[in-house]
Amino acid sequence: MPEIRSAGSLGDRMAEDLRGRIVRGEVPDGERLVEDVLAEEYDVSRGPVRDALRQLAAEQLVEIRRGKAYARTIGHSEIEDLYALRTALEPVAMTLAARNATAQDWAEAEDLTLQMTRSADERSWTSFAEADLRFHALFYRASRSPRLEAVWNLYQPTFRVMIQLTTAQDDDLHPSAASHTTMLRDLRSGDVDRVLIQLEEHLAGSKNRMLAAIQG
């Protein structure tokens, strides 16, 4: 039985585990996800299974056809699509955050860059990936645009798995930590144009590492 350790409802926890398996390619594309089989595999009732499948369908990692669920794995075109979405949204979030972020937001962002540096020192890819995700998520929140944040929140779980995979491609995490530190410094100083150039390079590198991860 898969181990489910995160907090939240059974459906949320099951969705998290299945999401990781789908994004990492452990579930073949188009494989039918049978409720009874999943309920037995995860030792849960069919209710949490349905909740998990609905959640993953909203994230487009599961396709529902005639009441049956099928896995949709992350391939080249899906990666291009997801990063195109993020490349469109995140510059807007950063620009708005530069105007609307509070002192508490800036302090939290600073703490996250310090966490990334510590994780790089400790060679902890897991904690680095989590701090990385929270850093970027913070600017969607600091944008003070509920609709922008809502779109990010829909795909954030998928990007969490992707960031874990891309972080694992780096032998040394210090350059990435330094990049985040520089972006934060320039954003706080109001040099948004410079930040957007850095962000474009950052996301392009992340996309390339994700492509390498699925091809490896």
List keywords for this structure.
single chain, 216 residues, mainly alpha, 3-stranded antiparallel sheet, 9 helices, 5% strand, globular, disordered N terminus
Biggest pleated-sheet summary:
3 strands, antiparallel
| Cα Rg | 18 Å
Query: How large is the count of helical segments?
Result: 9
Read across the widest sheet, the strand sequence of neighbours is: 1-3-2
The total count of strands amounts to: 3
The string of secondary-structure elements, in order, is HEHHEEHHHHHH
* Main structural class: mainly alpha
Q: Which parts are unreliable, with pLDDT below 50 for 5 consecutive residues or more?
A: 3-7
Task: Give average pLDDT, whole number.
Answer: 94
Bin the helical content.
Answer: over 70%
- Whole-Å distance between the termini? 27 Å
Query: What percent strand?
Result: under 5%
| Overall body shape | globular
Outline of the structure:
It contains nine helices and three strands, in the order αβααββαααααα.
Overview of the structural elements:
With 216 residues, the protein is mainly alpha-helical. The protein is built from nine helices and three strands; from the N terminus they run αβααββαααααα.
